[in-house]
From TrEMBL, chain A:
Keywords: Amino-acid transport, Cell membrane, Membrane, Transmembrane, Transmembrane helix, Transport. This is Branched-chain amino acid ABC transporter permease. Pfam families: BPD_transp_2. One of its GO terms (molecular function) is transmembrane transporter activity. It comes from Rhizobium leguminosarum bv. viciae. It is a multi-pass membrane protein. It is found in: Cell membrane.
Automatic annotation (TrEMBL), chain B:
It comes from Rhizobium indicum. It is found in: Cell membrane. It is a multi-pass membrane protein. Its main location: membrane. This is Branched-chain amino acid ABC transporter permease. PANTHER family: HIGH-AFFINITY BRANCHED-CHAIN AMINO ACID TRANSPORT SYSTEM PERMEASE (PTHR30482), HIGH-AFFINITY BRANCHED-CHAIN AMINO ACID TRANSPORT SYSTEM PERMEASE PROTEIN LIVM (PTHR30482:SF20). The keyword Chloroplast does not apply. InterPro entries: ABC_transp_permease, LivM-like. The chain crosses the membrane at residues 15-34, 40-59, 66-85, 91-114, 121-140, 172-191, 221-241, 253-281, 293-309.
């Protein structure tokens, strides 16, 4: 009984790590752009497809496929960012919703058009189990945990100390003032967007060996998981996102075990609605509500 | 007309009444002019127009961006489908029930959701769709899960000794046309009333509206419920037209389509919603050759809409309407 709870919680933390890496990109994009990116899961999907392609067609190793997947996604994100996201600075909320929905449709269906809509087998990754303190855990899951921690430490440092990080914080506080003091706001938006997409792709490549199957529509589900997380975490809040993702990961894992697998995908929105009734600002937001 | 214009200036002929007459005739004669496929597309457009009208009241007039239309659309479809399959009640009973159940469920959903502002509100309403789909999938004893409800009977009316069954595409087209026209008039009546002006006041500046004595909370809640009633009625028609209801009725795709219809046609304009539903349903039907290319083209259209037609087609419609109106 207890060991099941612990095991499921550990699995939940791993799932939470995956969500956290995806969601932190989305929350940063929200911070600079004030727009929800409905296409965010599509970059997760693109990363996975890039890796699957380089393993299946180019015969690369899993490690190399991570690089290929992430770089391919960054390239796509650069094009999308130049054409669309840059122009969304200061646009009303509706245009953000519509434009990113449009991008999601285009990316998802282009992949289906090129590679077909069926499920594909992802052959790669470290799937041997390791046993720690009597629990067995796949190596890949440990890798995900480690990468997640490194990503968040890296992001904390970047946001606090680098030029881009400071520019991001400035833009998320006041776009007009940034323009006045000479910060190239569209450029900051573009770079943040590319960083967010790269993180989503990284998360996708890391999870692919655990999920095994790869298909064109997989991004949509990830987008829907990410949305409640970034709201719960307080929009634009990096640490809050981390905690919210962990809470959601563990909650999903426990619900799947004790209530039923089919309810797993609703946990996020159900928790979100309950949480919003109690704290409309998000769990960790100190700012005015968005 | 501006004051500086004089009576001598040439006036073009007012073509608005003839045009309206032509449109009415076209709408009435459509099943006999076009092919069966065109009639089918028009029925879909008329059905989608109903939830879009509701969404227009929310987005266009009250300024609340909601993605919950698909949830209420699905609730309406399931209510009508279950009543028709289980109890065999006549069409108009199910239509009213679908609207009433959707509207009633909008109350408990709207109370927490409307406490939120923009982005959080959008997410919360999106959550209703996801949760609705999960309920439809998992409450198997009621909804038959993934199998859905099938063989919903043809709509029939029963008033005393008279009964009438709507069979065939042409008949269904007229049914949808009647309901669509009534709904359009209902929206027109709401918008033209003092309540409509209060809604616009909330959209423009909620704090100011509140300070002027508009009970903004009640207005928002009631508009949310009305929009759900429209969506429920639309869902009922959709269930009857397709004769099946499945959990896929609760799909983000429907919410997106409603939003595209409203914003693409022109938010805050009734003619915009009517035009938008014809345009976008026509567009998706025309692109039906390959499903993937169709969705890609749909995505491109969205981007074009956002960056080049910020206010949808409404300004174009207005300009055209004024141009043929005789005034220079």
């Amino acid at each position: 009984m207890l060991s099941t709870i612990v095991e499921q919680s550990v699995n939940g933390i791993v799932t939470g790590s995956v969500y956290a890496i995806v969601a932190v990109g989305m929350t940063m994009i929200f911070g600079v752009l004030r727009a929800i990116n409905f296409a965010h899961g599509e970059y997760y999907m693109l990363g996975t497809f890039g890796a699957w392609f380089s393993i299946d067609y180019l015969g690369l190793s899993y490690e190399a496929s991570i690089v290929v997947g992430v770089l391919a996604t960054i390239a796509v994100a650069y094009v999308v960012g130049q054409l669309v996201m840059r122009r969304m600075v200061g646009a009303p909320a509706e245009s953000g919703v519509l434009a990113t929905l449009g991008i999601a449709l285009i990316l998802q269906n282009t992949i289906i058009l090129v590679f077909g809509g069926g499920y594909k087998f992802f052959a790669g990754g470290y799937i041997e189990p390791v046993s720690i303190l009597g629990f067995s855990l796949a190596q890949q899951r440990i890798l995900i945990l480690v990468v997640c921690l490194l990503v968040f430490i890296g992001l904390e440092l970047m946001v606090s100390y680098t030029r881009l990080g400071m520019a991001m914080r400035a833009v998320s506080q006041n776009v007009e003032c940034c323009s006045v003091v000479g910060i190239d706001v569209p450029q900051v938006v573009l770079r943040t967007f590319m960083l967010g997409a790269a993180l989503a792709a990284l998360s996708g490549v890391l999870t692919a060996p655990v999920n095994v199957s790869v298909y064109g529509g997989m991004g949509e589900l990830i987008t829907f998981k990410t949305l409640p997380i970034i709201i719960m975490g307080g929009l634009g809040n990096v640490r809050g996102t981390f905690v919210a993702a962990m809470i959601l990961g563990v909650a999903e894992s426990l619900v799947a075990t004790y209530v039923g697998l089919q309810f797993r995908d609703t946990v996020g929105f159900a928790t979100l609605i309950l949480m919003l009734m109690w704290r409309p600002h998000g769990l960790f937001s100190t700012q005015a509500r968005f | 007309m501006s004051l500086t214009e004089t009576a001598q200036q040439a006036r073009r002929r007012d073509l608005r009444i003839p045009l309206a007459a032509v449109l009415v005739v076209l709408a009435l004669a459509a099943p006999f002019i076009g092919s069966r496929y065109i009639t089918h597309s028009l029925i879909i457009a008329l059905i989608f127009m109903l939830p879009a009208h509701g969404l227009n009241l929310l987005v266009g007039y009250t300024g609340l961006l909601s993605l919950a239309q698909a949830a209420f659309f699905g609730i309406g479809a399931y209510t009508a489908g279950l009543l028709a399959v289980t109890y065999g009640t006549p069409f108009y009973v199910n239509l009213i029930a679908a609207g009433a159940v959707s509207g009633a469920l909008a109350l408990p959903l709207g109370i927490p959701a409307l406490r939120l502002r923009s982005t959080s509100f959008v997410m919360c309403t999106l959550g209703f769709v996801i949760i609705g789909q999960a309920i439809a999938k998992n409450w198997i004893s009621l909804t038959r899960g993934d199998m859905g409800l099938s063989s919903i009977p043809k709509p029939y009316f029963e008033l005393g000794p008279l009964s009438f069954t709507v069979s065939g595409t042409t008949n269904f087209y007229y049914l949808a046309l009647i309901i669509g026209t009534l709904a359009t008039f209902a929206v027109w009546a709401i918008v033209r009333s003092p309540a409509g002006r209060n809604m616009v006041a909330i959209r423009e500046n909620e704090t100011l509206a509140e300070s002027l004595g508009v009970p903004t909370w009640h207005y928002k809640l009631i508009v949310f419920m009305i929009s759900a009633v429209f969506a429920g009625v639309g869902g009922c028609l959709y269930a009857y037209y397709l004769t099946v209801v499945s959990p896929l009725t609760f799909q983000m795709y429907y919410s997106t389509t409603m939003l595209i219809i409203v914003l693409g046609g022109g938010a805050g304009m009734i003619s915009g919603t009517v035009f938008g539903s014809l345009l976008f349903v026509g567009l998706t039907e025309a692109l039906r050759i390959t499903p993937e290319l169709r969705m890609i083209a749909y995505g491109v259209c969205l981007l074009v809409l956002v960056f080049w037609f910020k206010k949808g087609c409404a300004p174009l419609i207005n300009r055209f309407w004024n141009a043929i109106g005789g005034a220079k």
